[in-house]
Design brief:
The complex is a heterodimer of chains A (371) and B (176). Chain A is an alpha+beta fold and 371 residues long. Helices cover 47% and strands 13% of the residues of chain A. Chain B has 176 residues and is an alpha+beta fold. Chain B has 3 helices and 11 strands. In chain B, the strands form 4 sheets. In chain B, strands 1-2-7-6-3 form a 5-stranded mixed beta sheet. A two-stranded antiparallel ribbon of chain B has the order 4-5. In chain B, strands 8-9 form a two-stranded parallel sheet. In chain B, strand 10 and strand 11 (172-173) form a beta hairpin. Classes of the chains: A alpha+beta (371), B alpha+beta (176). The A-B interface holds A 41-42, 45, 47, 49-50, 85-86, 88, 212-215, 226, 228, 233-234, 300-305, 307, 314, 316, 318, 320, 328-329, 331, 333, 337-338, 340-341, 370-371 and B 26-29, 31, 55-59, 61, 63-64, 66, 88, 90, 94, 97, 101, 120-122, 124-126, 133, 146-150, 158-159, 163.
Chain lengths: 371, 176
């Protein structure tokens, strides 16, 4: 006779070390088996979209920094591209190159946090320290460029706030050479670690159809085996000038689209980002980075949806302009917000301990979920 | 790969008056205006049709068009009467790599739009957000509750252009 257990509701969070911010998961359990997971969000809601309506276009930039605060450069990148499309302006080539270099450095930094804290979540403490050590070097490069380590306000509509430090190219090349062998070290430490594989392989498998239907993008979609990257498939800025690959999940240790695949895609993407950075540093043209910044940013009435490949997925800005100095409406389609919506689907039928492994593998930032 | 004009013509032929117009005069994105009570059928067709197969909802946003009569109140407050609220659907096909924008406008006094949650599960949270912040009611949505604001927020929908902050929330003073 099967043993009957009583249904139990478990609250995980809002204050919980593994929720990467303030998130409450209401988990319904039968014994140790998860019946359903309901995320409750909004604890960090700062009314970004309402604020943006009261700001001029350039004043919004510091606010977008604070959404996905682990990838601020890329949030700015996406926002200014949307406004530039509305305005119909072209930026100098040097600006595009610097934006791509910053964006890809930011991608590595963001993935390092994802990987490091993922290890931490499921009990591997050491890789976290290694990842943050390397991330510090990237933050130092940003500090050298614009003085800030986390929230930059560096990429402006039509250009950049100022040019690179004279030492930047050399330091960035040093970083690339320093970091490449560290990926191998990380693989030895964590990726092929037996305990790590046991915790993540075959857990939280996300089939491709489900992933697309739920709007999953970025590394999480690619881990499900779909070769889709906005940098290539709906290219923007100057990404079509670089040579890089799009890794997809292969199910090396388990099933395609499991937690391990989602983790490993990020490791592979860091290598590709290094390739892009190297190419961009070698070809960096001369020029004035502030020459195309408009004196007054007043786009014509109209609306645009513009998207970029944020480290975590598709970051879209829907901006409606009514022809005044302030945006009429700014709606942000943040990847973290969308990815959190699939939690219930991923967790069903797994053990309660796997919630942590699954949540860590989809890599969310609550600043962007709640906005 | 289909242009927005081609998609519009296909829809116009199939759905007639439910598809209102193609607004292509805008500087950047042309959009197709549809009837809010037919939007789920139209989206289902766009999703199912082999040649179109719009399988990916990129974004869904609720917007206060603020095109009604503005009545100015005391100390800068205003109330808007009449006009419309709109929902914008940005959809694309990952197979054919084309994308279009669909817009459904609904009267401000009775803002009801049919939900597309059963077509793209992605729409679930976005519709809840549009309900929470703009106050658009999505018919047939399985769980239309507030998502970003507190569940017991009773002062209205913040992204309405005539939103007023409440004086107190659970005894805490709101304006500071």
């Amino acid at each position: 006779m099967a043993l009957k257990t009583e249904q139990m509701v478990l609250n995980m969070g809002p204050q919980h070390p593994s929720t990467h911010g303030v998130l409450r998961l209401e988990v319904e359990l039968e014994g140790e088996i998860i019946q359903s997971v309901h995320p409750h969000i909004g604890y960090l809601h700062r009314c970004f979209e309402k604020h943006a309506e009261a700001m001029t276009y350039p004043q919004v930039i510091p606010y977008v920094d604070r959404m996905d605060y682990l990838a601020s450069m890329y949030n700015e990148f996406g926002y200014v591209i949307a406004v530039e499309k509305l305005l119909g302006i072209q930026v100098p080539e040097r600006v595009d190159y610097i934006r791509v270099i910053m964006g890809e450095l930011q991608r590595i930094a963001s993935h390092l946090v994802a990987i490091g804290t993922y290890g931490l979540d499921i009990g591997a403490f050491t890789p976290f320290l290694y990842c943050f050590r390397d991330r510090e070097r990237i933050l130092s490069l940003f500090e050298m460029t614009c003085g800030a380590r986390l929230l930059y306000n560096y990429i402006w509509v039509g250009g950049l706030s100022h040019d690179l430090h004279p030492d930047f190219v050399r330091s960035a090349k040093d970083f690339v050479n320093y970091f490449r062998p560290n990926i191998k070290e990380l693989n030895d430490l964590l990726t092929y670690n037996r305990i790590f594989i046991d915790r993540t392989a075959n857990i939280g498998v996300l089939p491709l159809e489900t992933a697309i239907n739920y709007g999953i993008t970025g590394p999480n979609l690619r881990a499900s085996g779909f070769k889709w990257d906005i940098r290539k498939d709906d290219t923007y800025s100057i990404y079509n000038k670089f040579d890089f690959d799009i890794p997809t999940g292969q199910g090396l240790v388990g099933t395609v689209g499991d937690c391990w695949d989602r983790y490993y895609i990020r490791v592979l993407e860091m290598e590709q980002s290094l390739r892009i950075i190297e190419q961009a540093l070698d070809r960096l043209p001369e020029g004035d980075v502030t020459s195309a910044i408009p004196k007054r940013i007043k786009p014509p009435a109209g609306q645009i949806y513009s998207r970029v490949e944020n480290p975590k997925g598709e970051l879209g800005y829907f901006i409606i302009s009514d022809g005044s100095l302030n945006p009429f409406r700014v709606k942000v389609r943040g990847p973290s917000f969308v990815h959190l919506g699939v939690m219930n689907e991923l967790c069903k039928g797994h053990m309660v301990a796997d919630v942590i492994a699954i949540l860590g593998s989809i890599d969310i930032v609550l600043g962007e979920v709640d906005r | 790969m289909k242009t927005p004009e081609e998609v519009f013509n296909i829809l116009k032929e199939k759905f007639g008056d439910a598809v209102v117009e193609l607004a292509a005069s805008q500087p950047v994105d042309p959009y197709i205006v549809v009837n809010p009570k037919e939007v789920d059928k139209i989206c289902q067709y766009l999703f199912d049709n082999e040649e179109l197969s719009f399988n990916n909802l990129m974004n869904l946003s609720g917007v206060d068009d603020s095109n009604g009569k503005v009545i100015a109140g005391q100390n800068g407050d205003k109330t808007i009467e009449g006009g419309t609220l709109s929902v914008y659907y940005h959809i694309e096909s990952t197979k054919h790599k084309h994308k279009i924008v669909i817009k459904a406008s609904t009267p401000r006094e009775n803002p009801e739009v049919n939900s597309v949650e059963s077509i793209w599960r992605h729409a679930d949270w976005h519709e809840r957000e549009a309900y929470d912040l703009v106050g658009i009611i999505f018919l047939n949505h399985p769980n239309l509750t507030r998502i970003l604001m507190p569940y017991d927020w009773d002062a209205g929908h913040p992204l309405r252009k005539d939103y007023k902050n409440p004086e107190f929330y659970h005894g805490m003073k709101v304006p500071y």
